[in-house]
TrEMBL record:
Active site residues of this protein: 163 (proton donor), 248 (nucleophile)
Family named by the database record: Belongs to the DDAH family.
NCBIfam families given in the database record: DiMthArgaseDdahStm
Name listed for the protein in its UniProt record: Dimethylargininase
A biological-process GO annotation: citrulline metabolic process
The organism of origin for this protein: Knoellia remsis
Length: 255
């Protein structure tokens, strides 16, 4: 396993048909989305990440949101069982890639469902969103797998957002940040900081005190900067129309 390796998956030609649940559908410019994806990938590379591309899945419009297909922790990769039937075929190609990288592989199985976007790891805890895509059996199975790498699992209700990480993510110091209108249970977290923009709830820890955020959340980026972090921003507007955010476009493997 290489330190600072990230999995990514290029958008396919049917991206515009991706699922929307909490938003009204708006037209997607697939060429622009491709440019935005290249900029996102370039931002990771500039921060020292080696990118491994999962083969494209042209028949799966949402495959670009690769985070939902696998949860990586320590030497373990847990292949998910996505809660939306349309997304289940995304997982097999991810399995081949994580096996090549040397991960020990586990799997969420029926009746359990789980999307990687529902799993927020911070410190020794994995908070898991229990809601639209992830069910109780999925959380239970994940808890068993993550215990083997020393993580405890805590379920958190998610009703107003697609995934837990659509509503909250965590700063490197463990502070959970969120956009209040979609956070069901802020008391679940030991430290919680409210952000003024929906896209401001999402950070990707690039390491060395650098965080990646969406260009749609400039006020939130300023708040994060004033907390002592460097912030790099990328425009992912076409993916935001499909309820994507900066976290879901990659899987960071920290070796
Ligand atoms: N982890 C994430 O936030 N994934 C975004 C998935 C968006 C996709 N359109 C879906 O509904 O599954």
């Amino acid at each position: 396993m290489t330190r600072r390796t990230a999995l990514v998956r290029r958008p396919g030609p049917r991206l515009a048909e991706g699922l929307v649940t909490h938003l009204d559908r708006s037209p997607i410019d697939v060429d622009l989305a491709m440019q935005q994806w290249e900029s996102y990938a370039a931002a990771l590379r500039s921060a020292g990440w080696h990118l491994v591309e999962v083969p494209e899945a042209d028949d799966c419009p949402d495959a670009v949101f690769v985070e939902d297909a696998v949860v990586v922790a320590g030497d373990l990769a847990v292949l998910t069982n996505p809660g939306a039937a349309e997304r289940k075929p995304e997982v097999d190609a991810v399995e081949a890639v994580v096996r090549d990288l040397g991960y020990r592989v586990a799997r969420i199985e029926d009746p359990g469902t789980l999307d990687g976007g529902d799993v927020l790891k911070t410190g020794d805890t994995a908070y898991v969103g229990l809601g639209g895509r992830t069910n109780g059996a999925g959380v239970q199975q994940l808890a068993g797998h993550l215990a083997s790498v020393g993580l405890r699992t805590q379920a958190v209700t998610v009703e107003r957002a697609l995934h837990l990480k659509s509503a909250v993510t965590a700063l490197p110091d463990g502070t959970v940040i969120g956009w209040d209108p979609v956070v069901d249970w802020p008391q679940a977290f030991p430290a919680y900081l409210s952000m003024p923009e929906e896209g401001g709830a999402h950070v990707v820890d690039l390491g060395d005190g650098v965080l990646l955020m969406a260009a749609s959340a400039p006020k939130s980026a300023d708040i994060v900067r004033s907390s002592g972090y460097d912030v790099v921003t990328v425009d992912i507007g076409e993916f935001e129309k499909l309820e994507g955010c900066v976290t879901c476009l990659s899987v960071r493997c920290r070796g």
